[in-house]
Every structure is written in structure tokens, then in C-alpha cells.
Amino acid sequence: MHRNNFLRTISAILFLAVASTFVSCNKNDKKNDIEEIKALLGSTTSEQLRYAELNRIAKTLHEISPSEMALFLTEWVETHPEDTYNAYWLFMVASSYLSESKTGNSDYKAIAEYYFERIIRNYPDLLVNGQSIHFASLQHLIQISKNPANRIFYFNKLINSFQKNVSITEMYVRLALEYENEGEWDQALKAYSLFLEQPDSSTIQIAGIPDAYANARKMVDFSHSPKNWTFETLDSLEKAVKNAITRYDWKSLDSYRSKVNFFTMSWKTSESDSNAQGEFSMRNFMRGNRIRYNMELDESSNPNEAYLRTTGWSTYVNVWYFYFRKVNFPVDPDIHGRWEWAGIYLGEKL
Fold first, then answer.
1. Going by C-beta distance under 8 Å and a sequence separation of 6 or more, which residues neighbour residue 47?
2. Cβ–Cβ < 8 Å for 95, 105
């Protein structure tokens, strides 16, 4: 038994030694091949041949060590600024770091972003195997970058240079959101307006951005409206609405309602639902009815939204909740933060 164990141990050691020698020889063979190819580079006058040879070196080095490939290619770009394919060499470097970042090292992702950014900013676009290096770099940057200013540049670049490769409709929405993140409200409005001009704006489904059309429509329509129905405070809005109900003053109530996207719907309906929008006068529901309201706002009210429970409107749906909300419109500081009566929820709260 001891002899058999000893023989198995010796066999394992010999196998590992042979395997290690094979790997070492394999690496040495590859490095020898690289040196031979490098020797040819100096005598190569054809740009296409030089590209092929450099590509072979880069791919072979990557098999040995991605860091060695990155070092070789970045040094090549620095010492050969005239090389037409420099954008591609840096793209190989950036892609390698991005691949390595999947192992969990976030520093590699930052390095990849640096090189993709460098390609976009400093090198003309290049087609390799029919693919645009700039477009591929932008696709990666959109996924990597967290900087709104940089992302604005990327989306504008995609819109202006790659209209056939992307959904322009989606790009305008994403651009508008980045302008909002950067506080550039006028530019956000322009992007939303361009989005609404696209033929598929009302039907497009955009991942991560629900109700894109409704939100853009609300933003743009509100910007074009007089906004004269807003109140400085929630308290002033609440008092005005209650006084109008007490006096059965339907004209005042009609004037207090938001003139942009005012909704009337059940609690289960979405505000963006077409059935939630509709013009009507409070007169049709106040005449002949005994309208009452709660003295206090509903307990679910918060600093940005408030609900006033009212009753007596209809034998079909007796209870209406008036929905008040703080205006979110940073484009106009005089309007932003005021209050509006934005809609009506029909029936008791769920």
C-alpha cells in the first residue's frame, strides 16, 4: 500500500513538472514569435501589413498577460502618433481592462473608462471589420460613466453622429434626464420637446424610464402654460378651495384646477391613462348636491402632496379626494415649489 501511494505521488509530481515545463516553453515560444514579428515591424512599409503584425502581437501578449499587452500598445501609441489605427489599439486596451473589471476590481473599470474617453476625445473614428470604434466606445461609456456632464456629451455624440445605429427617440429622453441631473433645465426642456416631435414618442417603451411620454408632455406643456392657477402655499390653496365649496362657487373651482394634465380617476388608474384626462366643469356636479369637506387634510398627506376628502358629488361616486401637490418645475424659480390642484381621485382610498 505504501509503495503504491509513493508511486502515485511521484507520478503526480512528474506530471506537474512536465505540465509546468510545457506552459513555460509555450510562453517562451510565444515570446520568441513576438520578437520575430517585432523585428519585421521596422522593415514593414505597408500600413495594412503593420496593422496585421501588431494585431498578432497584441493578441498573443494578451494570452500571456493582459497587462503586458496594455503596456505594449500604450507605448506604441505614444511613440507612433501617426499610426492610423491608434484608436483601435487603445480600444483593445480599454476592452481588456473592462473585461478584467468583471473579476471585481473597480479600478480596472475606471481605467477602461479613461481609455474609451481618450478615444472619443482625441482620435478620429475608425472602422475595423465594419464596426465604428467611436460607436463601440460610446456604448461602453454610457454603461460605465456616472458623470452627468460626460454622459450629456456621449448622448449628443450618439444623436449627432450615429442616428442610424440608435433610437433617437430614446436618446432624447435619456439626454433630457442627464440635463436635469446637471441642473440645465432649459436644455432639458429642449431635449424633451425634440423627444415629443418623434413619431414613436407616445408608444416607445424605454427600459428604466416608465411613462416617458407622459412626463415629457407634462414638462413641456407646463412650460408653455401661464401657470396662473398655482398658489404660493398649500394653506392658501386649501383655504381657497374650501371657500369655493362652501359658497358653491363652481367658477372659482374651475379656475383653481391645473390647466395642464389635470386628472380625474379611480385610485387604481394610472395618471398617464388616457381615460384619466378629460375636460369638465365643476358646475355639473355642484348644482343640486350637498357638498361637504373634511376640516383637516388626509393623514397620508406629506410635504409634497396633500389630499382633501370631500363628499356629496354624485349618487354613483359620493366621495372625491382632491389631490394637491407641490410644483416641481426648477426651470422657473418663481413657480418651482408653489402648489397646484392637480387632480381628483374618485372613491374611498384603497
1. 84, 85
2. no
Sequence-distant (6+) residues with CB within 8 A of 168 are: 159, 198
Angle at 308 between CA 255 and CA 220, to 5 degrees: 50
Residue 244, CA distances (Å) to 143, 235, 251, 265, 295 in order: 52, 14, 8, 22, 14
Over residues 202-217, the pLDDT tens digits come to 999 999 998 899 899 9
| Of the candidates 87, 105, 86, the residue with the CA atom closest to the CA atom of residue 97 | 105
88-136: pLDDT as tens digits: 999 999 999 999 888 777 789 999 999 999 999 999 999 988 999 999 9
Residue 144, CB-side half-sphere exposure with 13 Å CA sphere: 26
Distance from C-alpha of 309 to C-alpha of 254, rounded to nearest angstrom: 18
Residue 321: what are its φ and ψ, rounded to 5°?
A: -105, 120
Cα–Cα distance list, 318 to 146, 263, 287, 293, 348 (Å) = 50, 17, 14, 12, 9
Query: What strands, in cross-sheet order, belong to the sheet with 319-326?
Result: 263-266, 339-346, 319-326, 305-311, 292-293
Average pLDDT, the chain: 86
Interatomic CA distance for residues 303 and 310, integer angstroms: 21
pLDDT band at 276 (very low <50, low <70, confident <90, very high): low
Contacts for 343 with CB less than 8 Å, ≥ 6 apart: 258, 262, 263, 264, 265, 271, 276, 323
